[in-house]
Specification:
Number of helices: 12
Largest sheet: none
Structural class: mainly alpha
Oligomer: single chain
Strand content: under 5%
Shape: globular
């Protein structure tokens, strides 16, 4: 039974899939990088991965229920839309994953356009390069807020447990993929963009030019950007010429964990 899936099993599934996907793209970046990186890979990776470990501990210790636990609770208590309608299991899973992805897109919009939320999220954008570790670089407060939104969405939807696990695995995998500094032939990239957010598409979202930053918000699928008019096909300076990051926090010292954690609370010049 799906309700018998333990949190320990969910952790094992997510960690094993994460390790495999991370390893693939880390090696791909070394063998076929899209852009030449000018900032220390060692410093960036050390601190981005340290932040990832910290976030993981905070979620597991501070929010042990998490999204999967919320789905188990909703199913046991018969809560949420999908637990109140009689749908084939496969259809319910598909609808739940699509709905969660749309909610993630809308959340991402909010984190760009609400000042307090942007101050949290901008730490992700302040990375001076974009590679597989950037897909893990989020402020702990943003992680906690995002998990709260996700748990509320799972509860309202009554998302099946298996759908939530699938969504979490897909989200981790696609975040690593679309941040990876990997070369994909342009013809292949054009086709992939109909179905999934590619690295070249998402990298534009990390441009220092704000109107490019405020585009291509999707993580898993590009459809919401197409539908809501936030899609941008190419950066003004081209993929290899564009400047990554934001206007502020551009020193090597800003790449270290203590500065990353303090960044949302620091004032920036007007």
């Amino acid at each position: 039974m799906l309700t018998d899936i333990t949190l320990d099993t969910e952790i094992l599934v997510r960690l094993s899939s994460f390790a495999g996907v991370f390893g693939v793209f880390a090696v791909w970046e070394l063998l076929a990088p899209r852009r030449v990186q000018r900032h220390s890979r060692g410093v960036r990776w050390l601190n981005n991965l340290a932040l990832t470990v910290l976030n993981g501990l905070i979620v597991r210790l501070g929010i042990p229920l998490a999204a999967v636990g919320t789905a188990v609770f909703a199913q046991q208590q018969d809560l949420g839309l999908l637990n109140r309608v009689d749908l084939p299991a496969g259809l319910a899973m598909v609808l739940a994953v699509i709905a969660l992805d749309l909610i993630l897109y809308l959340q991402h919009l909010a984190f760009h356009h609400v000042e307090f939320l942007w101050r949290l999220h901008r730490m992700h954008h302040a990375d001076l390069e974009v590679d597989v570790t950037t897909g893990l670089r989020f402020h702990p407060v943003e992680i906690v807020l995002s998990m709260g939104i996700k748990m509320a969405a799972v509860l309202v939807l009554g998302a099946p447990v298996a759908a939530v696990i699938l969504f979490e695995v897909l989200l981790n995998a696609t975040s690593l993929f679309n941040h990876a500094n990997i070369y994909i032939p342009e013809k292949v990239d054009r086709v992939l963009r109909y179905f999934i957010v590619t690295p070249d598409m998402h990298r534009i979202h990390h441009s220092v030019i704000r109107r490019e930053t405020d585009s291509n918000f999707g993580f898993n699928v590009p459809w919401w950007d197409y539908l809501f008019g936030t899609y941008r096909a190419v950066p003004r300076e081209g993929q290899t010429g564009m400047t990554i990051g934001i206007e502020y926090f551009r020193t090597s010292r800003d790449l270290w964990l203590d500065h990353l954690l303090a960044q949302p609370f620091l004032r920036t010049p007007k």
